[in-house]
């Protein structure tokens, strides 16, 4: 099992609360998910910045430095508990290819079938040995076939991703493939076999500056009064009204013009 986190924000945001300061931050969760971490932050002018390490996030000074200083409009983050593949940078999520980054939680059993459905070109681009990167290459293959891999997400992209996850789910004992797939503006969040939760923050949200968690610790939230955000995570990370995403659901989370989400047929 691993832990995923995706955030779409209406303005550049510091992510330290959910990365290192809340009681269920990724740094805290990494005690049970020790096999590396990755942070992908989308900065509007520069695109994706991806940082990774094979060290446990909570014990890695570099992770804490990035958590304190990183700012952006979109975040995809992952802490790994390996099931397939060695502890190495090439096997550490999120994976990046072109405009897309991808992070996965679960283990895919039908890797031979996935490989058979993946183009030679996409297989050749793989740097590691995980089922997760193979799943990413397969999704990119499907986007290639529709001419949708290198252009902004559209209804055609929805159809491709929706059909792909439905096809996989219909295969008996395919395995768990809860994932986040993002191009920096649009993020697809799919749940199958592992938990996934959603949180919306709006200007009406009273939890803005300081609050107490259940364990009695104070949590500071340096959150703009005008900022809107959508969070997707493997579990409820803060004492806020997270909604559980139902098994089999595929969400499309948009960063612009303001963060929002909708269900995609899958």
Q: Could you characterize what this model shows?
A:
The structure is a single chain. The longest helix has 15 residues, at 131-145. Strand 7 and strand 8 form a beta hairpin. The chain starts with a strand and ends with a strand. By secondary structure, the protein is of the alpha+beta class. It has seven helices and 15 strands. The chain is globular. The chain has one domain (3-264): Aminohydrolase, N-terminal nucleophile (Ntn) domain (Glutamine Phosphoribosylpyrophosphate, subunit 1, domain 1, 4-Layer Sandwich). 23% of the residues lie in helices and 31% in strands. The strands form three sheets. A seven-stranded antiparallel β-sheet has the order 3-2-4-1-12-9-13. A six-stranded antiparallel β-sheet has the order 5-6-7-8-14-15. The protein has a two-stranded antiparallel sheet with strand order 10-11.
List the helices and strands and how they pair.
Blueprint: E1 3-14, H1 16-21, H2 26-29, E2 37-43, E3 47-53, H3 61-69, E4 71-79, E5 95-97, E6 100-105, H4 111-116, H5 120-125, H6 131-145, H7 155-169, E7 178-182, E8 186-190, E9 197-201, E10 210-212, E11 218-220, E12 229-233, E13 243-244, E14 250-254, E15 260-264
Question: How would you concisely characterize the structure shown here?
Answer:
The chain is an alpha+beta fold and 266 residues long.
